[in-house]
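Morning!

This is the sequence you dropped in the shared folder:
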Amino acid sequence: MLPIFHMVPGAPTPVAPFSHAVEADGWFIVTGQMPTDPNDDGAALPHGIEAQTGRVMDNLIIVLKGLDLGLEHVVGVRAYLTEFKRDYATFNAAYASYFPNDRRPARTCIGVTALARDACVEIDLILRRD
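The structure's back. Tokens below.
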């Protein structure tokens, strides 16, 4: 079965040539989302890691809703931080608020030198539909 490439209406405008998500055999790979305003691509990014993490997670939720999925379907997360030492603890607190303590997906968090739009954080997801 060939993969299905999804562009979700109402989701943030892609910052590069990619699909919002790709589906294959019940698995979904959701492209990393940035802390951009889904209603105004040119708006300034939120200030600070906590606000940017919230915006990224909310953008991911928009994509998931467009696929009839939710955070409960997430099995894997990759997060990228440009200021790892400075932002790691604050990022974790903001991120953790989106998942119940007993249903946290597997996760890798990586320090990187830069992200598109000078963002502090980017997060991508791997999901499985029941």
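Headline: The longest strand covers residues 74-81.

More detail when I'm at my desk.
O.
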